[in-house]
Design goal:
alpha/beta; Rossmann fold; 6 helices
């Protein structure tokens, strides 16, 4: 296939169907609430709805992105201090979906024992959660893939856990640089068996890519119940 026939690496380079975007809007316009923080596997909520988890290096912008998706200012705790998220934080979206804000990997201001405990919790969750539909793996658009990211993708490929790469902080770089970063990232995952092919560039500050990511997540949710008929 020649270069001109290759699909664009960014998912938002092509206009998505209106009903696809509308499904995302409706899901995130519904009820969303913090359910619980989970410090150990025995505290996990019942696996009764699909789950989409957010992973990434410390300070990549997970909490900020969750807040932007849900159109809330402080649903997820955002901080400039790397490693602040120290539990699996679950957010319930009615009877259709859970979002999971996972501890960041890489640098964290904590002791080795704490870091090892968080990493073990994350591994156990990824291995054994039957309702986990996809990992949204966040990559800082300013820096691209790092060794820690590749290590995580190796583990997800081995475990056959589906993941989708999302570039964060797109407002911090030029549009041409985003295109280049998307092309480089796409090339790096082309042979990875569990990687979703679409890459989305997002900004929690400007809203770039938020509608599209909502729609991608909505496609993984349980079907909405039809409105009840009046007697």
């Amino acid at each position: 296939m020649n270069d001109s026939a290759k699909p664009p690496p960014l998912a938002d380079c092509r206009l998505p169907a209106a009903d696809f975007i509308e499904a995302g809007r409706l899901l995130f316009a519904g009820p969303i609430a913090f359910e619980r923080g989970v410090p150990a596997m025995q505290h996990l909520p019942e696996a009764d709805v699909p789950e989409v988890a957010f992973a990434g290096r410390s300070n990549v912008g997970k909490s900020s992105l969750v807040n932007a998706l849900c159109n809330r200012k402080a649903l997820a705790r955002a901080s400039t201090e790397p490693g602040r998220t120290r539990e699996l934080n679950f957010f319930r979206m009615g009877d259709r979906l859970r979002l999971v804000d996972m501890p960041g990997y890489g640098y964290a201001k904590a002791g080795k024992a704490d870091i090892d405990r968080w990493n073990e919790l994350t591994r156990d969750y990824l291995r054994g959660r039957p309702t986990l539909k996809r990992i949204i793996l966040l990559i800082d658009a300013r820096h691209g893939l790092k060794p820690h990211d590749n290590t995580v993708m190796d583990a997800l490929d081995i475990s056959a856990v589906s993941y989708q790469l999302v570039l964060t902080k797109a407002d911090k770089v030029k549009p041409t640089e985003i295109e280049t970063m998307a092309e480089q990232t796409s090339a790096a995952i082309v042979k990875r068996p569990a990687a979703h092919p679409k890459i989305i560039a997002t900004s929690a500050q400007t809203g770039q890519g938020i509608e599209l990511l909502r729609a991608e997540i909505a496609a993984l949710a349980a079907p909405a119940e039809p409105p009840k008929q009046r007697p």
